[in-house]
Amino acid sequence: MEYVRLGKTGLVVSKLCFGGLTVGPLQANLDIEEGAKVIATAFDMGVNFIDTAKLYKTYPYIKRAIELSKNKNIIISSKSYDYTYEGMRESVQEALEELGLKKLSIFCLHEQESRLTLKGHSEALRYLIDAKKCGIIDAVGVSTHAVEVVEAICTMEEIDVIHPIVNIKGLGIIDGSIDDMLKAVEKANKSGKGIYSMKPLGGGNLMSNSTECFSFVLNNPNIHSIAVGMQSLEEVYTNISIFEGRTIDEDILTKLKNRKRRLHIDSWCKGCGECEKKCKNKAIKVVNNKAKVDEDKCVLCGYCSAYCPEFCIKIV
Question: What's the whole-model pTM score?
Fold first, then answer.
C-alpha cells in the first residue's frame, strides 16, 4: 500500500481511504459486527484512513473495527452539516464519545455548495479552528461537490484538507465539468491543501468501467488519497489489489460480478423529479416528495444519477 502525506497536515495516509458510508444504515445496513469485520480487514491489509460523517451513523462500526484490528493507528476524518459554533462543538464531541477517542485526525464542514455556503458556516468553522488549537482535532477540512468551493478554499489558510468529488465522467459535480474540477484540485494541491477525493466510481454508476475509473484518479498527482465505499470482504480484497497494482483474484471478481445490486436513493432526496423525467424505463417516480424505484423496471443503467442535483442516486 502506498502512503502519502496529506498536504501540509503532517498526516500520512494510505492511498486507499475506506469510504465509511456504505456499511451503515443509509446503505448496506450491515449489523455492527459484520460491518466492523469488513473495515477491520481493510485496516489489517494496510488501509490506515477512513472517512465518515455524523449523518452516516457509522461511528460504532469504526470503533468496533479498531478493537478488532491489529492496526490501531487509524486516521479518521468525519464531518457535519452543523453551521453554528455550539452545534459543531456538539458534533465533534459526539464523534469522540462514540469512537472512544480523545482526538480526531480531521473534521470537516459537510458538503459545502458555494462561497455563500462557506460564509454561512463561518461560526462552525470558527469552532473547528478553536478545536485544532486545543488539540481536539489535527486538521480542518471541507467536503464538496462544487468547483467553486475548491477554488475558494485555496486562499483560506484556516482550512487544511479538501474532500472533493472526482470521477472520470464528472458525475455529481454541481457547477462545472470534470476538467474544471481537476484544475481547481491542482490549484488546491499547489496551495498546500490535503486532497482526498470521493466517488471514483460515481456512486457505483461507473462500475462497468472500474479499471479506467480507478486509473483516472490513481494517476492524478494532485490527489493524495481516494475514498472508496466498501461493504464486503470481496470489495476490500479487490480494491486493495487495484491500489497495490496486483492481479485481482478471479474467484473474487466472479463473486462481485454475480452480486445482486440495486438502485439506492439517499434519505436527503428532495423529490425534484429530474430522475423521473430522464428514466426511459419509467422505473423512478416521485411519491410524497421522494423518488421511489420500481425494481421490476429498473435495469441499473445508472443514467438517472447524472441528472440528480443532490447526488442521491447510487448503485449498491
Answer: 0.87
Say whether both 284 and 137 belong to one domain: no
Structural domain boundaries, residue 293? 263-315
Mean pLDDT computed over 45-54: 97
> How confident is the model at residue 241, as a pLDDT?
93
Q: Which residue stretches of the chain are H helix?
A: 32-44, 59-68, 85-99, 115-120, 122-133, 147-153, 178-190, 210-218, 233-243, 250-258, 274-278
Q: Which of 12, 58, 57 is nearest to 39 (CA)?
A: 58
- Residue 182 CB partners (closer than 8 Å, separation 6+): 166, 220, 222
The answer to whether residue 151 scores a pLDDT higher than 80 is yes
The answer to whether residues 227 and 126 belong to one domain is yes
The domain total for the chain is 2
Mean pLDDT of the chain: 92
Cell 468553522 appears where?
Answer: 125
Specify the DSSP class assigned to residue 39: H
How many angstroms from the chain centroid is the CA of residue 266? 14
